[in-house]
Amino acid sequence: MRTREGRPRIVVTRPTLTAAPLRRAIRRRGAEPLGLPGLALEPAADPADARRHLRAALSSQVWIFTSPAAVHFAWTLVPDLRLPQRISVVAVGRGTAQALARVGVTAIAPAGREDSEGMLALPVLGAVEGQTLALIGAPGGRDLLAPALHARGATVQPVHVYRRTLPMWRPAQIDAFCRAEEPLATLVSSGEALDNLSRHLPPPASARLRGVPVVVSSERLAGLARDLRFGEILVARSPAPADLLDTALARLQPGGEGRSRTVPVS
């Protein structure tokens, strides 16, 4: 067993609001989490308007939740929110489905890919012509899901219950990252977070971020990391936290350089 000083350190770039489960998983695996969020999550700019849209969406046939944060902010806006049984509820992945279960809602989630492509492969979203679907989340993002559902004949009602913003990093947070001992790796599952970190951190922190292995959740993010000049890029099997963590720990173990699939930087 390594001493505390020799444990792998895993940089968690998830928003502080949603990072706790991943931090606990890292500790259970014998590593140390180091928080450096790439995004901050804020309530909708106009809560009253968001609340109206949320209640209006109760006439939809399907509700789609794009993140655990979407669940958190939806029930923060309307604490007594109750979904009629006729509404099918779709979650982007296991974490979002678990968040829904905690508020008493059973959701359908992809068994494999935990992203827009995974949701689009679900039978419940396959035959949606003539249906109205509520897309619960935040403005921005990949914008893949709504156009694909429109193409299938659905009416999509975006319901923005929160916002993603640039984090305000504390000096102590930046200093802890810059001083963190190796072995060290970073987990990233958001292109916006990766871009924020690489472009807005102070130069010494940004340089260090590019100099340690970064584990990303998709080939798309690997391409972005390559464009941003990250040095060592590893692609996890899926966006699931367990797969991201498995990839990072395999790389950080002695001899791990030879066991991980690294994306070359051209």
Radius of gyration: 19 Å
What is the CATH domain class of the largest domain? Alpha Beta
Determine the structural class based on helices, strands and strand pairing. alpha/beta
The total count of strands amounts to 12
Average of per-residue pLDDT values = 92
Helical amount among residues, as a percent range?
25-40%
Largest sheet, spatial ordering of strands: 2-1-9-10-11-12
Residue fraction in strands = 15-25%
Q: Compute the number of structural domains.
A: 2
Note the run of SSEs as H and E. Answer: EHEEHEHEHHEHEEHEHHEHEHE
* CA distance, first residue to last residue: 38 Å
List the total number of helices: 11
Q: What is the third-level CATH name, the topology of the largest domain?
A: Rossmann fold
Just name the CATH architecture of the largest domain: 3-Layer(aba) Sandwich
Pfam families: HEM4 (PF02602)
Organism: Dokdonella koreensis DS-123
Function: Catalyzes cyclization of the linear tetrapyrrole, hydroxymethylbilane, to the macrocyclic uroporphyrinogen III.
InterPro entries: 4pyrrol_syn_uPrphyn_synt_sf, 4pyrrol_synth_uPrphyn_synth, UROS/Hem4
Tags for this entry?
2 domains, 266 residues, 11 helices, 4-stranded parallel sheet, Rossmann fold, 6-stranded mixed sheet, globular, 12 strands, alpha/beta
Write the layout of secondary structure elements.
Layout: E1 9-12, H1 20-28, E2 32-35, E3 40-43, H2 47-56, E4 62-65, H3 68-77, E5 88-91, H4 94-102, H5 116-120, E6 132-137, H6 145-151, E7 155-160, E8 162-165, H7 171-179, E9 184-188, H8 191-200, H9 203-211, E10 214-216, H10 219-227, E11 233-235, H11 241-252, E12 262-263
Parallel strand pairs: 1-2, 1-9, 4-5, 4-6, 6-7, 9-10, 10-11
Antiparallel strand pairs: 3-8, 11-12
